[in-house]
Design brief:
With 206 residues, the chain is of the alpha/beta class. It has 6 helices and 9 strands, in the order βββαβαββαβαβαβα. It has a single domain, classed as TIM Barrel (Alpha-Beta Barrel). 35% of the residues are buried. The protein binds iron/sulfur cluster (SF4).
């Protein structure tokens, strides 16, 4: 795959990390445009198609505006791994940033991330096997497809890291199902299963 000089970006902004183990950390978010999965519950549908082709040096400049606030950059989407982000990642590492990848896990690229969050998506929950040893955490959105069978399978595969049951946009019904599944998980002695959250929905921030 040849290297891209421009990347399709949906938005770049500064906020607090809202999910998973790094919750509350000041973070610069780089949201890549495009996603092939199209989940019903997706809360960034605007990133599926909308975005601007931007040169890597322009993206770096936009990120640099927030550099005094944090070194953490969250590479997210949409699905960031659909594009060849290797040059951008290389430049960011050179400039001393710490990189957090958020991916649905379908595409693997060998890149020097400091933190990897994988969130396999329904209905198939497929992911590249390389993530099993790379992921620092797993997030499973609690929707109509999520079952104990899937939870057991994924928690076992990723048994060295926490697996968060993440309610769909903190909706009441999804939270109730998350708690039910979590309790079932405890009864089945799934030690790495955690109840998840999205603090950006609670605080109503981006
Ligand atoms: S994989 Fe993520 S970005 Fe893509 S549609 Fe699903 S929730 Fe949205």
């Amino acid at each position: 795959m040849h290297q891209q000089n421009t990347l399709k970006i949906s938005e770049i902004f500064f906020s607090a990390q809202g999910e998973g183990l790094r919750v509350g950390e000041p973070t610069i978010f780089v949201r890549f445009a495009g996603c092939e999965v199209r989940c019903d519950f997706c809360d960034t549908k605007y990133a599926w198609n909308e975005g601007e082709e931007e040169e890597i040096k322009t993206i770096l400049k936009k990120i640099e505006k927030f550099k005094s606030l944090t070194k953490w950059v969250c590479i997210t989407g949409g699905e960031p791994m659909l594009q060849d982000i290797s040059e951008l990642v290389k430049m960011l590492k050179k400039q001393g940033y710490l990189l957090h990848l958020e991916t649905n896990g379908r595409i693997f690229r060998q890149l020097p991330f400091d933190w990897v969050t994988i969130s396999p998506k329904p209905p198939n929950y497929i992911f590249a096997k390389e993530y099993v040893n790379l992921a620092k955490e797993v997030k499973l959105v609690v929707d109509k497809y999520l079952s104990m069978e899937i939870i057991k399978k994924i928690s076992w595969k990723f048994r060295k890291v926490p697996v968060f049951l993440q309610p769909d946009s903190m909706k009441r019904g999804s939270m109730k199902k998350a708690y039910y599944l979590w309790k079932k998980g405890m009864e089945s002695k799934i030690k790495n299963l955690k109840l998840g959250y999205q603090i950006q929905k609670i605080y109503r921030i981006k």
